[in-house]
């Protein structure tokens, strides 16, 4: 049974026990629907408390059920039935009450909450809108001003705020169930005003401001504005009409590719830190991390560990470089405080958890050391030779290399079973992707430790076997080959950027190169040429040789005004690359997109076939969390797979 019924005097306590998040799957709804009838008819029962087992109330409807038509009783049916119950129902909320879970609580006549509970309607994250009354009942309980950010802008409410707004009738400081029962036992048979009372229209200016705000926060996703329209429909046409329109919109959005993509990523991101083959392996405790190198990557990696509460020692070769690294770290924490992401006190605490050392000796007590020095094999080899001598035999040693073969780096390292590649993406304290690149000798315990750390840091870890560029940069290299071929054949690079921006990328590949710096790719091309690989002279080579390395030199593919990152068409760049630009007919926008997404998927299939990636989903996670692939498209593998099935 997933619902248990206990009697506390005249109060019935119903407990939903459907791990892991008490999702309101069909069988749970059916049992609850029957229990409304039973409890209404029971003369011994004066009130009902509804609670969740485990760490939360209810995490929502069961997202896993969304690929098939809803089964009865639907959640709206159940909520209407509870709302019409003869006996008063009290939702006792702890942990999370999200989506359908909060809608279920809104259908109850009262709500009490434990301290620290979190309530929200995050459906728009899944490309849908609340589909069981949230867009209608919440505004009628707490007002439009407070409800719209929850419904359409992903805002969560904690217990205190919920009490302040009237979403919660009481906060229970002691044991929640006891407090809820005591609250319910005192309820008379009078009812609070129905959650479906009319709402007065705040006028066009309110809706214009709300639409502008919601559209901006939506970042190209369609559900947030649809959620706002559902709220407004109920204001304009009454609650009944609002409930109908909300349900129609929810059912329609559920079948869109955008929602399928977002739900696909929802499950993929949660499964990523817990690969099946490591679920029974105990990770090592990591209480102190050393980071070698205080440059952009090293300071970002140190910040990522500090943001996860792990103490860090930052090591540099000389004091001035160490000071610069510590100053960069301090800047990152206080910038987060200035943006309001953390308090000043938290910024100070994060910085207090960082110590610095000159040289590597100070890292001897670390449980994990991450190397983030210059991308040169000999430099890295030397660092690991010293770490192998100075660090504890059980310390995990990791390289942040983005290109070099970890087997080469660890060539002379004793006990290579503790060695692993942890490829962070810049800025390392922001980007979620972490490519985990095991050495052939890496132990499963060290691998499990890497995945556990990724989870602790809120990162999306993806295991990659060893090839040039691992998964992400290998696919980036393929994109570069394709885009260069398009330019040579006559498609303007600015048209390629525009096409991909309209597809959903934040910026096109050429704008991206200008931001990252063309000289990095140029260096890799020159290194490949030095290895005897055939890398034909390309437009990028001509630009770098002409000193156009991107934003940092005021121009690359585009021109940039001083201190401004806005790309402007460049006659100079066009003249430099003219000898290599073809006179062929430029591709149309959809052809550009098809060609480039097709190339990404083609390289992804090769990566899968070679066993470099474990799954197509992992490849999509790399693209989404490392290279800005639009979430609403799911990833190159998801997209091409759906097209093939269409
Ligand atoms: N349905 C099905 N599975 C879910 C789920 C859900 N709603 N929420 C989580 N899971 C799975 C998840 O995939 C993972 O599976 C496991 O539970 C633990 O998740 C009608 C239409 C509740 C804050 O969007 O935010 O209601 O990998 O690692 O860190 O209007 O889960 O172990 O196999 O995230 O403790 C709206 C989504 C749904 C909330 C718990 N609700 N969930 O966090 O665990 S749509 C949401 C979360 C809806 C109605 C609409 C979090 C959590 P596995 P986890 P956690």
UniProtKB/TrEMBL annotation:
<dbReference type="InterPro" id="IPR036291">
    <property type="entry name" value="NAD(P)-bd_dom_sf"/>
</dbReference>
<keyword id="KW-0520">NAD</keyword>
<dbReference type="Pfam" id="PF02737">
    <property type="entry name" value="3HCDH_N"/>
</dbReference>
<keyword id="KW-0442">Lipid degradation</keyword>
<dbReference type="InterPro" id="IPR006176">
    <property type="entry name" value="3-OHacyl-CoA_DH_NAD-bd"/>
</dbReference>
<keyword id="KW-0413">Isomerase</keyword>
<dbReference type="InterPro" id="IPR006108">
    <property type="entry name" value="3HC_DH_C"/>
</dbReference>
<dbReference type="InterPro" id="IPR029045">
    <property type="entry name" value="ClpP/crotonase-like_dom_sf"/>
</dbReference>
<feature type="domain" description="3-hydroxyacyl-CoA dehydrogenase NAD binding">
    <location>
        <begin position="289"/>
        <end position="463"/>
    </location>
</feature>
<keyword id="KW-0443">Lipid metabolism</keyword>
<comment type="subunit">
    <text>Monomer.</text>
</comment>
<keyword id="KW-0560">Oxidoreductase</keyword>
<keyword id="KW-0276">Fatty acid metabolism</keyword>
<dbReference type="Pfam" id="PF00725">
    <property type="entry name" value="3HCDH"/>
</dbReference>
<dbReference type="InterPro" id="IPR001753">
    <property type="entry name" value="Enoyl-CoA_hydra/iso"/>
</dbReference>
<comment type="similarity">
    <text>In the N-terminal section; belongs to the enoyl-CoA hydratase/isomerase family.</text>
</comment>
<protein>
    <submittedName>
        <fullName>3-hydroxyacyl-CoA dehydrogenase NAD-binding domain-containing protein</fullName>
    </submittedName>
</protein>
<keyword id="KW-0456">Lyase</keyword>
<dbReference type="Pfam" id="PF00378">
    <property type="entry name" value="ECH_1"/>
</dbReference>
<dbReference type="InterPro" id="IPR018376">
    <property type="entry name" value="Enoyl-CoA_hyd/isom_CS"/>
</dbReference>
<keyword id="KW-0576">Peroxisome</keyword>
<comment type="similarity">
    <text>Belongs to the enoyl-CoA hydratase/isomerase family.</text>
</comment>
<comment type="pathway">
    <text>Lipid metabolism; fatty acid beta-oxidation.</text>
</comment>
<feature type="domain" description="3-hydroxyacyl-CoA dehydrogenase C-terminal">
    <location>
        <begin position="469"/>
        <end position="560"/>
    </location>
</feature>
<keyword id="KW-0511">Multifunctional enzyme</keyword>
<dbReference type="InterPro" id="IPR023076">
    <property type="entry name" value="HMG_CoA_Rdtase_CS"/>
</dbReference>
<dbReference type="InterPro" id="IPR008927">
    <property type="entry name" value="6-PGluconate_DH-like_C_sf"/>
</dbReference>
């Amino acid at each position: 049974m997933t619902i248990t019924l206990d009697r506390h005097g005249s109060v019935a306590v119903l407990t939903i026990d459907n791990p892991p998040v008490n999702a309101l799957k069909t069988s749970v709804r059916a049992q609850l629907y029957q229990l409304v009838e039973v409890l209404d008819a029971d003369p011994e029962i004066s009130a009902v408390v509804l609670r969740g087992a485990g760490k939360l109330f209810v995490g929502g409807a069961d997202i896993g059920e969304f690929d098939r038509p809803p089964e009865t009783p639907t959640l709206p049916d159940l909520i209407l039935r509870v709302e019409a119950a003869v006996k008063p129902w009290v939702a006792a909320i702890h942990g999370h009450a999200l989506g359908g879970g909060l809608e279920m609580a809104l259908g109850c006549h009262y709500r009490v909450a434990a301290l620290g509970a979190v309530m929200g309607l995050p459906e728009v994250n899944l490309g849908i809108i609340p589909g069981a009354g949230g867009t209608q009942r919440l505004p009628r309980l707490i007002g439009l001003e407070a409800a719209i950010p929850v419904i359409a802008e992903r805002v969560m409410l904690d217990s205190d705020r919920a009490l302040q707004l009237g979403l919660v009738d009481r906060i229970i400081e002691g044991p929640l169930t006891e407090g809820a029962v005591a609250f319910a036992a005192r309820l008379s048979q009078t009812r609070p005003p129905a959650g479906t009372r009319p709402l007065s229209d705040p006028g066009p200016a309110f809706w214009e401001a709300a639409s502008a705000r919601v559209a901006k926060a939506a970042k190209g996703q369609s559900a947030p504005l649809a959620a706002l329209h559902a709220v407004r429909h109920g204001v304009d046409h009454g609650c009944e009409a609002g409930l109908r329109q909300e349900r129609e919109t929810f059912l329609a959005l559920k079948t869109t590719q955008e929602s399928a993509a977002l739900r696909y990523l929802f499950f993929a991101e949660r499964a990523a830190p817990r690969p099946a083959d490591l679920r029974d392996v105990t990770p090592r405790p990591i209480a102190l991390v050393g980071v070698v190198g205080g440059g952009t990557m090293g300071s970002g990696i140190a910040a990522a560990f500090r943001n996860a509460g792990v103490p860090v020692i930052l090591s540099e070769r000389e004091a001035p470089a160490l000071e610069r690294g510590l100053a960069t770290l301090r800047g990152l924490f206080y910038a987060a405080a200035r943006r309001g992401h953390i308090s000043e006190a938290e910024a100070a605490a994060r910085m207090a958890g960082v110590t610095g050392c000159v040289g590597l000796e100070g890292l001897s007590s670390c449980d994990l050391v991450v190397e983030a020095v210059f991308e040169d094999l000999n430099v890295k080899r030397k660092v690991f030779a010293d770490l192998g001598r100075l660090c504890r035999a059980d310390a995990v040693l990791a390289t942040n290399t983005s290109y070099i073969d970890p087997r080469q780096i660890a060539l002379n390292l004793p006990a290579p079973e503790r060695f692993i590649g942890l490829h962070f993406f810049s800025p390392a304290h922001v980007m979620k992707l972490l490519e985990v690149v095991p050495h052939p000798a890496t132990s499963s315990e060290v691998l499990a430790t890497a995945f556990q750390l990724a989870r602790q840091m809120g990162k999306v870890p993806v295991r990659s076997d060893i090839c040039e560029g691992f998964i992400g940069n290998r696919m980036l290299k393929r994109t570069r080959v394709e885009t260069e071929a398009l330019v040579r054949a006559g498609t303007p690079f600015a048209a390629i950027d525009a096409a991909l921006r309209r597809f959903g990328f934040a910026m096109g590949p050429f704008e991206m190169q200008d931001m990252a710096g063309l000289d990095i790719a140029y260096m890799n091309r020159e290194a490949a040429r030095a290895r005897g690989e055939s890398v034909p002279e390309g437009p990028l080579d001509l630009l770098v040789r002409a000193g156009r390395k991107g934003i940092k030199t005021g121009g690359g593919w585009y021109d940039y005004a001083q201190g401004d990152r806005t790309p402007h068409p460049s006659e100079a760049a066009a003249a430099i690359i003219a000898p290599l630009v073809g006179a062929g007919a430029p591709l149309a926008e959809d052809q550009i997109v098809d060609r480039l997404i097709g190339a990404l998927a083609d390289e992804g299939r090769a990566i899968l076939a070679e066993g470099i990636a474990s799954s197509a989903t992992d490849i999509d996670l790399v693209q989404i969390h490392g290279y800005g692939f639009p979430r609403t498209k799911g990833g190159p593998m998801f997209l091409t797979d759906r097209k093939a099935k269409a």
